[in-house]
Amino acid sequence: MLTRRDIEEHGLGMPVLTDAPMAEHTSFRIGGPADLLARPRNEAELTALLAIAARRETPVFLMGNGTNLLVSDAGIRGLVVKTGNLSRIERVGETGLRAESGATLAQLAGTALDCHLAGLAFAHGIPGTVGGAVVMNAGAYRGEIRDVAVETRCCDRWGAPSLLRGGAHEFGYRRSAFAAKPDLLALSTLFLLTPGDPVEIRGEMDEYARRRRQSQPLEYPSAGSVFKRPPGRFAGPLIQSCGLKGFAVGGAQVSEKHAGFIINRGGATCDDVRRLIDHIQRTVLAREGVALEPEVRFVGQA
Ligand SMILES: Cc1cc2nc3c(=O)[nH]c(=O)nc-3n(C[C@H](O)[C@H](O)[C@H](O)COP(=O)(O)OP(=O)(O)OC[C@H]3O[C@@H](n4cnc5c(N)ncnc54)[C@H](O)[C@@H]3O)c2cc1C
Question: What digits encode the pLDDT tens for the residues 172-226?
């Protein structure tokens, strides 16, 4: 198993934590310790780290901002790699932006605005990274990553490079080619945008932010919408119609403001959230005949 000393002995000066409480690295504020958590400062450090972990047969979990994760109370065995330091964004030609996977969507959308480029206003309020957003095909307000992402540079767990272009991303509703390729890592993505009026783009971002503040419980830790939208329906109204708004298990509660969100109202455990998810799924299936599928990703042993 990889140790912090192994990483230091390879001359990799990146920040490395041992027994890192994942509650401090996820928007849910839930999760036990990761054996090791490293934050490579550039691509070379990332690929070198992956190679050492592969040689030491250490499991690796790659994360962005941890805004779509529910981490086990027992934590994560092996190495967690956080991409946040890989955050360069550069202009490519007249209308392209290439962003490293750890850049946040807010940074990316902000850069697009500065360059007077339209197409990313929808992404400004989604609290994840570029890598997490490509993997999830994140979307909001009728926009989706698949509308603008044209090429993603990737590598596998041994650092071998590959390229996804256009349809090879296999974007679907909150999914992409990464679902079938757990060993694939997104390094950077090229976004193709269109020239736009900065006042209009800013106005669109402000309007979406206003709608989020109005409809989402942003004052509580959460992982956003817990369930995918079932075909032809919406998860929130279905949960609400079953009388589950405000229903709680331990510290986890169905938000009073938006029934599609589970909030951590203080001290919630992963077990609380899992039991609440089970209860919601069973109730909605029994009363409405709809099987809700989680959008949030479970990590670590249950
Ligand atoms: C308040 C709130 C509002 C939200 N609103 C929305 C919304 O409107 N629309 C929406 O789609 N989502 C929304 N989300 C969910 C979340 O922000 C998105 O799913 C986001 O894309 C996740 O990005 P992340 O960087 O946090 O990924 P993480 O949660 O860290 O990881 C998600 C998955 O991606 C994988 N991953 C991350 N980076 C990489 C990489 N570089 N290469 C390969 N795999 C990688 C991880 O292993 C994991 O499986 C919301 C969440 C919150 C808390």
Answer: 999 999 999 988 999 999 999 999 999 999 999 999 999 999 999 999 999 999 9
Residue 189, classified by CB atoms within 10 Å of its CB into exposed (0-12), middle (13-18) or buried (19+), is buried
First to last CA, the chain: 22
**Domains, in order of start, for the chain:** 4-82 (3.30.43.10), 89-201 (3.30.465.10), 217-299 (3.90.78.10)
Ligand 1 atom index nearest CA of 221:
53
User: HSE on the CB side for 139, CA within 13 Å?
Assistant: 18
From the CA of 287, how far away is ligand 1's center (Å)?
30
Who contacts 290 (Cβ-Cβ below 8 Å, separation ≥6)? 230, 233, 238, 284
Active-site residue list: 174, 225, 295
